[in-house]
Amino acid sequence: MFEILPYNPQLEKRWDKFVLNESMNGTFLQTRRFLNYHPKDRFEDASFLIESSGTIIAAFPGNHTNTGKWISHQGSTFGGPIISKNFYTAERVLNIVDCAENYLKSICKSIKIRPTSSLFSLDSTSLLEYVFDHCGYKRQSELSAVCTLEPGKDPLEKCEKTCRSVFRKSIPYNLELRDMTDEEMPEFYKHLCISKAKHKAKPVHTLEELLDLRHNRIANEIRFRALWMKDIYVAGMMMFDFANVNVRHAQYIAPNDEIREFQPTTAMYINIMREAAKEGFTKFSWGTSNDKNGDYLNLPLFKFKESLGAKASLNLIYTKNF
Asked: Which of 80, 154, 157, 225 is least enclosed, having the fewest CB within 10 Å?
């Protein structure tokens, strides 16, 4: 028998322990430690756990929307479900999804699920994908990009010839890659807002939220690195480290568009990949090149990532109406 446990703050420690230590596809992005950085009025939390004989077997981070939809979770790149390593078998996953669906039918009109990508999971996500595909869920996909890093091999060697030529223009300037200080973060955020505004968008996070994540919530998983030409800011990047699967992920890139001597974004990307390879990461994730849940592909952006040696990777989205 499975039991639904709607989330409450008393479950926070059990929730995070399960996600980080007992699941096959949990990451810090689904922990309450991370999700709780959002102001309480930003989302109507509707997360829940599934227990079997007192043991947590699945976590469903999620929130309600004002249209009656349940989404897993708007406050995270990937929401879930998060499945126990010990319950990741065909029969059990079918039962978990069925149990969750019966519960969700009682609290919402439709659901939207964003499972953790296979890139960030300890086990293959094929079983979970099969269950959703064959239980009446509509599937959409987003096109992401990932570079494979090899010990002792310069990532520049995998880049296309034109990319290598563009990068070499930055070499004479002796650029320095280093951590941003808190005092330098506003400069990064200013350029991030400029970059986002070109696409009629804004950063998901405020500067204050980024500092909170850095110092209080995911200090071991988040990095802010910047490239400098003496005292001139060239580009900055916010990255997430998924150490359990040796993947580093670029969340935000903020180039200084006033730099004309060379291409700041290419210089930043190559330097960042070189650093990740030296630190033992085997994959570098560049994120999606889509809008509208994958319906629109920014082809020039994806081709640029391909010029860096990136290959395609999918993020999946499942929806169902009741």
From this structure: 157
CA 13 to chain centre: 22
Strand 69-72 to 63-64 pairing = antiparallel
What is the three-class DSSP state of 20? helix
User: ω into residue 81 within 30 of 0, thus cis?
Assistant: yes
230-237 LR contacts (CB < 8 Å, sep 24+):
232/256, 232/259, 233/184, 233/187, 233/188, 233/191, 234/175, 234/259, 234/264, 234/267, 234/268, 235/191, 235/264, 235/265, 235/267, 235/268, 236/180, 236/187, 236/188, 236/191, 236/192, 236/268, 237/268, 237/272
Q: Round to whole Å and give the CA distance between 221 and 205.
A: 16
- Per DSSP, what are the bridge partners of residue 223? 239
Instruction: Tell how strand 247-255 and strand 283-288 pair up.
Output: parallel
Q: Show the domains of the chain with their CATH numbers.
A: 2-136 (3.40.630.30), 145-315 (3.40.630.30)
**Cβ neighbours of residue 176 under 8 Å, at least 6 residues apart?**
227, 228, 229
User: Which pair of tokens denotes residue 213?
Assistant: 């994540």
Give which of 90, 12, 94 is closest to 56, Cα–Cα: 12
Q: Going residue by residue through the chain (322 aa), what tens digit of pLDDT does each one get? A: 899 999 999 999 999 999 999 999 999 999 999 988 777 778 889 999 999 999 999 999 999 998 999 999 888 888 889 999 999 999 999 999 999 999 999 999 999 999 999 999 999 999 999 999 999 999 999 999 999 999 889 999 999 999 999 999 999 999 999 999 999 999 999 999 999 898 788 888 899 999 999 998 999 999 999 999 999 999 999 999 999 999 999 999 999 999 999 999 999 999 999 999 999 999 999 988 887 666 788 899 999 999 999 999 999 999 999 9
| Of 141, 119, 118, 146, residue with least CA distance to 290 | 141
